[in-house]
Design goal:
alpha/beta; 5-stranded mixed β-sheet; 7 strands
Length: 282
């Protein structure tokens, strides 16, 4: 199997690994059409221009994967190479032609892109969601087959619970995935836009955003209690941050004189199940 098809594809399509090496043939650029199931929606001009220069000098080194359609070919894997080759004025590109159903076309495109790790967090999250829906796979099965940790997949999927406006900010890299995960712990979701505005205006890092979210989640307390409330120790703050990172949700450690408690927030029944599975794994 060509090196473009990572081990994630072999895990979903083991029969491919036993076949003879795929035959590479030259396909006209004018006969190619983008894959409608391509999970990557953004292709930066800089990336295309850089690849175009390389292709102009060395040609397309890695074949595209395509499938025959009624009119020409649909690209399964290699849309960026196709765009760059087209920009470079190439008439033909090397490609491997495969016979794939619509469902297989989607699966291969999603898994190949996930293996290459060139998607933004929201594109990656939507790819996981599509694979789980169309393949009937669980998060644990995806974890084993794609070689990605269970928390990694779960944390990306949780981003889809954010409002479209906040998701758009992450896609455009106005805020990071870490900021997005922190916003999931906000009790009053209507305040998310206000916090995002503050993050951008004041260049808040994730830790500062966590503190802001915690402050906004706190109920107003009498002035006397405010004075009496002791700030958590550096050790407690450090452990809270580790637990928040592992569980992908708001975690607080409350220590009293003789005893204390750890509170882990969940947003839905599915989120609770995710957290319980992480606890069972531990």
């Amino acid at each position: 199997m060509g090196r473009g098809l990572g081990r994630g594809l072999n895990a979903f399509f083991p029969e491919e690994a036993d076949r003879e090496e795929n035959v590479v043939e030259d396909v006209k650029v004018s006969d190619l059409r983008p894959n409608p199931y391509q999970p990557r929606k953004t292709f930066t001009e800089e990336a295309i221009e850089e690849l175009k220069d390389s292709i102009s000098e060395h040609g397309v080194l890695q074949p595209l994967i395509v499938r025959k359609s009624i009119k020409g070919y649909e690209i399964v894997v290699g849309e960026r190479r196709y765009r760059a080759a087209k920009a470079a004025g190439m008439e033909t590109v090397p490609a491997v032609v495969k016979e794939l159903t619509d469902e297989k076309l989607m699966e291969v495109a999603l898994i190949e892109n996930l293996q290459r790790e060139n998607l933004n967090p929201l594109e990656e999250a939507k790819a996981y969601e599509k694979l789980m829906k169309h393949l009937g796979a669980t998060q644990d099965e995806l974890s084993k087959r794609l070689g990605k940790s269970r928390p990694h997949i779960a944390n990306h999927l949780r981003l889809l619970q954010l409002s479209p406006a906040v998701q758009h900010k992450i896609e455009n890299k106005n805020i990071s995935m870490g900021h997005g995960r922190t916003l999931l712990g906000l009790h009053d979701k209507t305040k998310a836009d206000k916090i995002v505005e503050k993050i951008e205006k004041e260049s808040l890092n994730v830790r500062q955003t966590e503190e802001l979210v915690q402050h906004m989640n706190q109920k107003p307390v009498p002035e006397k209690k405010k004075k009496e409330a002791a700030r958590p120790s550096v050790f407690i703050q450090s452990k809270e941050e580790e637990l928040r990172s592992y569980f992908g949700t708001s975690v607080s450690i409350k220590k009293g004189r003789k005893k204390g408690k750890i509170e882990i927030e969940f947003l839905s029944d599915e989120d609770l199940q995710r957290i319980l599975e992480l606890l069972e794994n531990e």
